[in-house]
Design a protein that fits this description.
247 residues; globular; alpha/beta; 7 helices; 7 strands
């Protein structure tokens, strides 16, 4: 596939019908899913998470039907479902926010506070033990991440972090923020690096989605005990950059 960048023009044929069907499917089913999650507020996290994961599985199936978007995973043997870990993933689209809940063990995702302004959708994320941070208050955001992240890790729940902090253009990897590595340094839990090329098929800020197979690579756990946050961050970022270059 021809490499893209943030300034290039995408000349691929536009799938108007498929992209429209996918958009309305997400909008319609997400509203139902959020409503049911609220009805399950009394249930355990495990039950609520399983329901949320089923919705993500449904979305991946709908993507395959409407726009021909599939995925393949390499390195799943590096994930121990019985061992909590901090997941570092590059961020290019909304696809990985859904797919990683299906591919990887139960996880608490780090989300920005602005998502809570979305009625039902944003509020339902709180029922999945999301870690809410305020990017306008970096010090407070870091404290929340370390405190809540360590708590969830100790409960056996993985923590999903997009260390770039925002979505990057296809094939780009932005410099990593330090929050995730600080959590790893303080908690001692391993970091699992994940790389994918979802932006090639689900470009950021684009209504159109394209047929193809997204590649997901999962690296071996990075040990963090006794290591400085900067070392952890550098190793994870280097692995993801190398994995992206090989795609």
């Amino acid at each position: 596939m021809t490499q893209q960048n943030s300034s290039s023009v995408d000349n691929r044929p536009k799938n108007y019908l498929g992209s429209s069907l996918l958009f309305f499917s997400i909008f319609f089913t997400a509203t139902i899913e959020a409503t049911i999650l609220f009805a399950l507020f009394w249930a355990s996290f495990e039950i609520r998470y399983k329901f949320g994961r089923l919705w993500c599985m449904l979305m991946l199936w709908i993507m395959k039907i409407t726009v021909g978007l599939k995925y393949e995973v390499e390195g799943l043997e590096n994930v121990n479902p019985e061992q909590a870990a901090i997941i570092f993933s590059n961020h290019q689209s909304a696809w990985e926010t859904l797919a990683l809940r299906v591919i990887l063990p139960p996880q608490s995702a780090v989300i920005k506070r602005e998502l809570l302004y979305l009625p039902l959708w944003g509020w339902s994320l709180l029922l999945l033990k999301s870690i809410v941070i305020d990017k306008r208050n970096p010090r407070g955001a870091l404290k929340s991440l370390v405190k809540q992240g360590t708590q969830y890790l100790n409960e056996g729940i993985c923590v999903l972090i997009f260390p770039e902090g925002t979505r990057a253009a296809p094939r780009d990897v932005l410099p990593f923020n330090a929050g995730g590595s600080v959590l790893a340094h303080h908690s001692g839990y391993p970091v699992i690096p994940v790389a994918h090329n979802a932006g090639d098929f689900w470009p950021r800020y684009s209504f159109f989605k394209y047929a193809g197979t997204i590649k997901v690579k999962i690296g071996a756990p990075i040990e963090t005990k006794g290591r400085k946050a900067a070392e952890i961050n550098a190793e994870a970022e280097a692995w993801i950059r190398k994995a992206m270059a090989e795609m």
